[in-house]
Design a protein that fits this description.
hypothetical protein PF0899 fold, globular
């Protein structure tokens, strides 16, 4: 018998480990795709301002413009997850499995924003954003922008199993589409974009990674993505939550304004531990551990996203 097998798992120790796990934060792609804000009330109203006018020759008096405002709101929601253990099992946990599972509650908190954002992405072709159109749509239009589409198609031989060359072509087409977007003043929006996240479902993982890594394409010619190295940085994001079979999404991840908004109530992220010595534990001979999170997500700047459907 090892000495640690006789050690009792204390509430203080479990709580400390849970708090430490919370500090690891959400998945990296979440911070790349979402503007993060804090909220200490039931909902927040946001004002989405139009672009400033382009410079023109000064003739006579100054021409003053007023920015158009598009408003939208995001309501906070409360989330929780809890586990209950018998006190005797806490004492007899020789392998530390209970503490491992309790610590994973914190991982669930860190993973929640990715889960919520994945749902937004999946529903983007049928959910409205700030301009009154679907987030992924073919007819976005604001003032002098003209009609614009961030939902495109790309031809492949097998829609559910694209080759690396076909994925390269589709990714380049998405970037090209994004580069053509104009703001409400008719000025280019993404002309300085250099870093793009390509989010794909698991079945597209191999083709996407190969497309990014290969140097030679069909017929021995330089591969398309290889030709773009030094100009663009392509970051593959494999998202197991996407149930798409013929689609993927491309996002600009180096812009100041992001495609999504992540709103979090800083007071809503907490660890609950009703453990040894508590009145509940003495009466029920069991302990409760849980985590709380409050916040929500919403659609932001559609101009930083393109949905590609393989046809």
């Amino acid at each position: 018998m090892y000495p640690q097998q006789y050690q009792r798992i204390t509430t203080a120790n479990v709580r400390a480990m849970m708090l430490l796990a919370l500090e690891t934060g959400p998945a990296a792609w979440v911070t790349q795709l979402a503007m993060q804000t804090t909220s200490d009330q039931a909902s927040e109203n946001y004002a989405w301002l139009s672009a400033p006018p382009a410079l023109h020759e000064f003739i006579g008096n100054r021409q003053l413009s007023q920015l158009k405002e598009n408003s939208f709101s995001i309501s906070n929601k409360d989330y929780e997850s809890n586990l209950r253990f018998k006190s005797k099992d806490m004492r007899r946990d020789k392998l530390g499995m209970i503490q491992t599972r309790v610590n994973q509650l914190s991982e669930r908190v860190n993973d929640l924003p990715a889960k919520l954002l994945s749902s937004l992405i999946l529903n983007g072709a049928s959910s409205l954003c700030y301009d009154g159109q679907y987030f992924f749509d073919t007819d976005h239009a604001e003032n002098n922008s003209g009609t614009q589409s961030n939902s495109i198609t790309s031809d492949v031989a097998t829609t559910t199993a694209p080759t690396a060359d076909e994925m390269s072509t589709a990714i380049v087409a998405a970037i090209q589409q994004m580069y053509g977007f104009k703001d409400d003043q008719g000025e280019p929006i993404n002309q300085g974009a250099a870093t793009f996240g390509v989010m794909v479902p698991v079945p597209f993982m191999g083709a996407t990674l190969q497309a990014r890594a290969q140097l030679l394409g069909a017929g021995g010619a330089t591969a398309q993505l290889a030709a773009l190295k030094g100009v663009f940085d392509i970051v593959p994001v494999i998202n197991p939550r996407l149930n798409w079979t013929t689609k993927f999404a491309t996002f600009r991840i180096d812009g100041a304004i992001k495609p999504f908004v992540l709103q979090e109530d800083p007071g809503g992220r907490d660890v609950v531990a009703i453990g040894d010595g508590s009145e509940y534990e003495q009466l029920n001979k069991e302990q409760i551990f849980g985590v709380d999170w409050a916040g929500n997500v919403g659609y932001g700047y559609w101009q930083g996203a393109v949905l590609t459907t393989l046809t």
